[in-house]
TrEMBL record:
Belongs to the cytochrome P450 family. The lineage of its organism: Eukaryota, Metazoa, Chordata, Craniata, Vertebrata. Heme binds at residue 411. PROSITE patterns: CYTOCHROME_P450 (PS00086). This is Cytochrome P450.
Length: 467
């Protein structure tokens, strides 16, 4: 370890500390290492040193106070080769990332895409789910595909301007190809690829991910070409149109905007905005079903605030402190992106008294803040009181509430995700009662670890509410 580098367990040659971290669920091992070495420690992933940052104080110092120093992304890993170093999520801190992030934030905030606002698009999508649940009232179903489909369609509507039935051939192939890439990126072959440079030239199973990228390209490019043909300049209908308008505006300037970036942008928005939202919904309904008093209290509040109003608006959240608290608590306990997206230091810097050289891999352990003792009234149990005061009012979440991370890299889709979670939950709870099936046994709240974290598969029984 370099001088004054954060401490950590002894690393073995070639594999580093991989034996200290279980690939199935490294979070528990990381907690143990935190207990031993403190809130900032280092591990070796193969030959690469990584600094794990835990706890609200250290995370805030890294992500916010020294945000720019820690705003890079590693650039020499398998996932960078697969994504051709393009796309805002994995792009390094620099002009291309800045240009694209600024453009995306503006576009998402104003969303001047056609006549339909972002909220109308989300509402429109929810109606398909309401219809589906209505048809299945009285039955027991597996919600996994349903929630994935709603989250997927919201992104597809926003980015590509279209939606797909859940069994549509295009979207089924698209999703399974992306899954394939994700699994390879998260798997042992990617680890080998990252550890041993010579391996990169061998025809090993990681080549699947490069083939899958080519497949996804061949699927997305026709959509982009169609937009180029049919769009009305200055009257964008979706994110792709907005990008093409921008590309035209910048055509004489020195810019990083180009068709290749657009492709990766579309792909990454899909990747970042689908499983995150659908896994959060899965956690939400797991708790709502198995803690029926929480579901009933949400429904009472929803009925009281909306009375006979037809349409629910995102604005209504201000009058629903309990529902707001439940959604925040679901995000806290659901811990959907526990290790964030890995960062890298952009220059030699310091963190909590340790020296960290430029280019060091940084693992922000968001999970450690979401259940940190001293930060929450009930750090280890599901309890919406974590976000309510004595009067039952929703309180501003503490700094430890980091499901979307913080600082220059905070989640670009936070606004959209919040809107989706609120509108989906309120719409569905208003119309239906969700019941833990009698034959389902004891609920298992243990989360399954992956790039995003999810509850174990479960079924739900749905009944129409008669109020
Ligand atoms: C509950 C839902 C979501 C959660 C918990 C979540 C969480 C996160 C987290 C933890 C990061 C990493 C931030 C960092 O590196 O410090 C991130 C990045 C990102 N998210 Fe989300 N996200 C969600 C939904 C969405 C949605 C709906 C979209 C867009 C459609 C989106 C787009 C992005 C993008 C583009 C980035 C990369 C930002 C950058 O590197 O500058 N996310 N998200």
């Amino acid at each position: 370890r370099p001088k004054n580098f954060p401490p950590g367990p002894t690393a073995l040659p070639l594999i580093g500390n991989m034996l200290n971290l279980s690939p199935d669920n490294p979070l528990k091992d990381m907690e143990k290492l935190r207990g031993r070495y403190g809130n900032v420690y280092s591990v070796y992933i193969g030959h690469r040193a990584a600094v794990v940052v835990c706890g609200t104080k250290a995370l805030k110092e890294a992500l916010v106070n020294k945000g720019v120093d820690f705003a890079g992304r590693p650039q020499d890993m398998f996932m960078n080769d697969v994504t051709e170093r393009r796309g805002v999520v994995l792009a390094d801190y620099g002009p291309s990332w800045k240009e694209h992030r600024r453009f995306a934030l503006m576009t998402m905030r104003n969303f001047g895409m056609g006549k339909k606002s972002m909220e109308e698009r989300v509402q429109g999508e929810i109606q398909y789910t309401v219809e589906y649940l209505g048809k299945n009232s009285g039955k027991t179903l597996s919600p996994h595909v349903m929630f994935h489909s709603i989250a997927s369609n919201v992104v597809c509507q926003v980015v590509y301007g279209r939606r797909y039935e859940h069994d549509d051939e295009f979207i089924t192939r698209f999703v399974s190809t992306i899954d394939d890439v994700n699994k390879t990126i998260n798997g042992p072959w990617a680890f080998l690829y990252d550890c041993f440079h010579f391996v990169r030239y061998l025809p090993l199973p990681f080549t699947r991910a490069f083939k899958a990228r080519a497949t996804v390209k061949s699927m997305l490019y026709p959509i982009i070409e169609e937009h180029k043909k049919n769009r009305v300049p200055g009257d964008p209908q979706d994110f792709i149109d907005c990008y093409l308008d921008e590309l035209e505006k910048r055509s004489n300037n020195d810019t990083s905007f180009c068709s290749e970036e657009l492709f990766m942008f579309c792909l990454m928005m899909y990747g970042a905005g689908t499983d995150t939202v659908s896994n959060t919904l899965l956690t939400a309904f797991l708790y709502l079903m198995t803690k029926p008093h929480v579901q009933e209290r949400c429904q009472e509040e929803i009925d009281r605030v909306l009375e006979d109003k037809d349409l629910i608006a995102f604005e209504d959240r201000h009058n629903m402190p309990y529902v707001q608290a439940v959604i925040h608590e679901v995000q806290r306990i659901g811990d959907v992106v526990p290790l964030s997206v890995f960062h890298a230091t952009t220059k030699d810097t310091e963190l909590m008294g340790y020296s960290i050289p430029k280019g060091t891999l940084i693992i922000p352990n968001l999970s450690s803040a979401l259940s940190e003792e001293g930060q929450w009234k009930f750090p280890h149990e599901f309890n919406p009181e974590n976000f309510l005061n004595d009067k039952g009012e929703f309180v501003k979440p503490p700094d430890a509430f980091l499901p979307f991370s913080a600082g220059p890299r905070f989640c670009l889709g936070e606004g959209l995700a919040r809107m989706e979670l609120f509108l989906i939950l309120v719409n569905l709870l208003r119309k239906f009662r969700f019941i833990w099936p009698e034959d389902a046994g004891e609920p298992d709240y243990e989360l399954e670890f992956g790039i995003t974290v999810a509850p174990k598969p479960y079924n739900m029984k749905v009944e129409l509410r008669t109020t």
